[in-house]
Structure formats: C-alpha cells, structure tokens
Amino acid sequence: MHDSRAKNLMWVGASGRLLREKLAGLGGMAREQLVAVRYLAAVLGTTLFLSAQPRRWGRVVRGIFARQFFFSGVESVRFILIVAVLVGISVVVQLSVWTDRLGQSQKLGPLLVVVVARELGPLFANFVLIVRGGSAIATELGIMKVGGEIRVLEAQGLEPLLFLVMPRVLAMALSAFCLTIIFVLAAFASGYGFSVLFGGINMDPEVFLKSVFKAVHPLDAIGFLVKCILPAVLTGVICSTEGLSVEGGVTQVPLAAKRALARSLFALLLTSTVVSLLTYS
Fold first, then answer.
1. Of 42, 258, 39, 232, which is closest to residue 138 (Cα–Cα)?
2. Cβ atoms within 10 Å, residue 119
3. Helix crossing, 205-214 with 166-197: angle to 10°?
4. Are the C-beta atoms of residues 194 and 89 closer than 8 Å to each other?
C-alpha cells in the first residue's frame, strides 16, 4: 500500500514538472514572438517615418526603389496576367452562368466585386510578390550581410534601414497595388470575353461595367487598399529583417529566405482574414 502510494506521488510529481516545463517553453516562445512582433513594428514605423521626409530620397535611394519596383512589379506583370486570365475564365464565367440561371443577374456585379476585386486580386498579387520579390530581398540582403557590405555601409556613416530597407518596402507596396489593379482588370475582361464568346452571358459591356462599378462602396475601396498594400509592406519588412539578421556563413542565407517566405505568407493570410472579418462584420 505504501509502495503504490509512493509511486503515485512520484508520478504526480513527474507529471507536474513536465507540465511546468511545457508551460515554461510555451511562455518562452510567446515572449520570443512578442519581441519579434515589436521589432517588426519598430522597423515598419521607422521606415514609414523616413519615407515621409523628402530629403531622405537621395539618388541612391531612388535608384534602389526603381530597381526593386522593376524586378518585383514590372517583371511580374506577365505571370499575374496569366493567373488573372485563368481566374477570370473560371470564376467570372461560373458566377455569370449561375446568376443567370437563378434569375439574379443583378447580383453579378456585387459578387464579382466581393470575390475577384476584394479577395482574389490582393491575395494572388501579394502571393506572387512574396515568392518573387520577398525571397530575392531576403537572399540579397543576407548575402550582403555575410559578405560584410553592411559593415562597410555602417562604417561610411550610412544607415542600412534608410538605404536598404525603406526603398524595398515601398517598392513592394507600389508593386502590390499595381499588380492587383492589373489582376482585377484582366480577370474581368477575360471572364466577360470568354462568357460572351461561348454564350454564357447576355449583357452589353456598358451594362456589365455599370453593374460592377455600382456594386463598389467606399468601404470596399478601403478594404481593397489595406488588403493589397499592408501585406506587401509587411513582406518587405519581414524579408529585409530576415536578410539583415543572417549570422554565420553563406549556408545560412537560404534558411533565412525560407523563414522570410513562411512568415510573409502567414502575415498575408492573417491580414486578409482580419480585414475580411472587419469588413463583413
């Protein structure tokens, strides 16, 4: 009897220690995530503050901004057009067919605004930016950090946040806005054209455009801007900080790029979900 009671007490004590260790581990992870979020918020706030000062936009900063915009935005237009055409043919055609069959053709415009403009456009545009521009930013800055170029900039009195982070973050935001506009227009045009070609929609182009624009409300415009620009800004900040935080050799650069992509995708999904909930509530 005493032996079994002692074993039970030992088991309870071991379980208690294990539970405390797990709780301590979760608490440590939570603190680390909180510190990381605060650091990203500080970098984002400083970046926006610096960008609002015209004297910070020197020739070098403008050059970096232009190169990043060309790489992330201009060179992604072809791919975003392909995706938009496929989405337009699949989504717009189905919505037009089903609304026509149900006798609810007047609902086509609001549905297209909600599905394509408000949800799919910002999501696909930012996804393309994360895969193409985000990984490039993390890799480039990581190689610069490992190669000692960051120390050279600091020795010359140049602030890496101003010359390396700010122009890339703002270029990502502008790229996201432009790519989202291109995606929405291409999806509407391809979907309407395909529907007319195969008899899936009987509506004049003017009536179609009026039904779409009539369904747009000021709240939709605000949600659209937030959902296409905010994830891009967060992607630029996350990928830049991950690249600048590389320690060790070149082998650490791909790991930093993977972390940057994973965290950027999480930020994209989280932002999209939160904005959608706030918009629809």
1. 258
2. 17
3. 140
4. yes
CA nearest 139: which of 260, 47, 266?
Answer: 260
Write the DSSP symbol of residue 157.
T
Q: Rounded to whole angstroms, how far apart are CA atoms 41 and 55? A: 23
Could you read off the pLDDT tens digit of each residue along the chain, which spans 281 residues? 545 555 554 554 555 565 555 555 556 556 766 777 788 888 888 888 888 888 888 888 899 999 999 999 999 999 999 998 888 888 777 777 666 666 665 666 667 777 788 888 899 999 999 988 898 999 999 998 888 888 888 788 778 888 889 999 999 999 999 999 999 888 888 877 777 776 655 666 676 677 677 767 777 778 888 889 999 999 999 999 998 888 877 888 889 899 999 999 999 999 988 888 887 66
As a whole number of angstroms, the distance between CA 96 and CA 105 comes to: 7
Which pTM does this prediction carry? 0.81
- Round to whole Å and give the CA distance between 237 and 246: 15
Q: Name the nearest CA neighbour of 145 among 67, 63, 256.
A: 256
Asked if 64 and 167 count as a contact pair (C-beta separation under 8 A), the reply is yes
> Residue written as tokens 């609810």?
104
Q: What is the CA radius of gyration of the chain?
A: 25
Residue type, 247: E
Please report which residue ranges of the chain form alpha helices under DSSP H. 2-51, 59-72, 77-87, 93-101, 108-112, 121-129, 135-146, 149-155, 160, 166-197, 205-214, 218-244, 252-280
